Amino acid sequence: MKSGFLPITAALVLMAFGVRAETTFKVQPDSITDQKAVYATVESPYVVPARTRIGGTVASLSVRQGDLVTPGQVVAVVADEKLLLQINSLDAEISGLQSTLAQAKIDLNRAETLARQGAGPRATMDQARTALEVATSMLQARTAQRSVAQQTLEEGRVLAPVAGRVLTVPLTNGTVVMNGDTVATIGEQPFRLRLRIPERHAVEIKVGDPIRLDAKQLGTESGGSGTLTLIYPRIEEGRVVADANVSDLGDYFVGDRVRVWINAGTRSGFVVPESFVNTRFGLDYVSLRQADGSTIEAPVQRGQDTSLPSMPDGLELLSGVRAGDVLVRP
Question: CA dihedral defined by 73, 79, 84, 85, rounded to 10 degrees?
Fold first, then answer.
């Protein structure tokens, strides 16, 4: 009794409120955007080398392949023992010049006192003043040389020029390097997709076009989406090169190949809600309303899922319907 009572009650409620159990849809031609699958590679906007600024020996490496770095982070330290010896030598000279300067000040004070008392010649005072100026200049010169040596020693710290992922580290501890040698290469983040599109589609793509990524390759259920940001004017080997930004692209692998779909022109076709298509025994049917109000089932050929702004669950029908047909929900 219960299994038969509920459907009858639901039908009475729908009739009482004037709600029809069946809905209809009128078939009209729509503009459908064709999509073409192409392969793209994950690339860094810029691959920047972290170079040495002095020659010497690699004393320590702070990173390895795959590490994330920030701008200014120390990736390696290059040491040169000659710089330490030079600094020690300059420290000794500075210490001696400081003593010479102190003695020159004492001699000048003594000569000035004797000159005021008339007990000493002015030539002695002038010689003492000159000696003080020479000692001061020599001390300043040696101090500047030490600053240069200290700065050169500080430049042994190899810094990361950009934020990103360390791609290669071609050196090891103890490697002898020259000024300008590469210690590590860093791929700047965020990564982007570089597409190579057949040139016959060059006139059909433009900056701002959406792209769709394969869900399986991204490891997600819904896949990903992005936008074309740059189309290069040079065609290489029959391919148009373009860049796209994708939010869920990942930040580890560089050079990974991803299948994406791009817009490849528009055409006219019939798109209906998928709920109006009934599948039985591997064949698809729609219910067509006739002029006298009756319905018949007509076989149709299913196309690809086509989501429109006004029809998120749209399905393209390749045959079996024409413009003006009224479909009834099965």
Answer: -160
Task: List phi, psi (to 5°) of 193.
Answer: -100, 135
Q: Using omega within 30 degrees of 0 as the cis cutoff, is the peptide bond preceding 210 cis? A: no
Nearest Cα to Cα of residue 255 among 44, 26, 30 = 44
Tell me how far apart the alpha carbons of residues 303 and 90 are, in angstroms, rounded to a whole number: 83
Can you read off the two tokens belonging to residue 201? 């589609």
- Predicted model pTM: 0.62
Cβ distance 66 to 185 under 8 Å? no
35 CB-contact burial (10 Å; exposed 0-12 / middle 13-18 / buried 19+): middle
Nearest one of 221, 272, 205 to 36, comparing CA atoms: 205
HSE of 6, CA atoms in CB hemisphere, 13 A:
2
Model confidence over 13-59: pLDDT tens digits? 334 444 444 488 889 888 887 778 888 888 888 899 999 999 999 99
- Return d(Cα 201, Cα 224) in angstroms, integer: 22
Count other C-beta atoms under 10 Å from residue 294's C-beta. Answer: 8
Q: What are the tokens at 250?
A: 């990942």
Residues 6+ away with beta carbon under 8 Å from 309: none
Q: Tell me the pairing of strands 164-168 and 182-188.
A: antiparallel
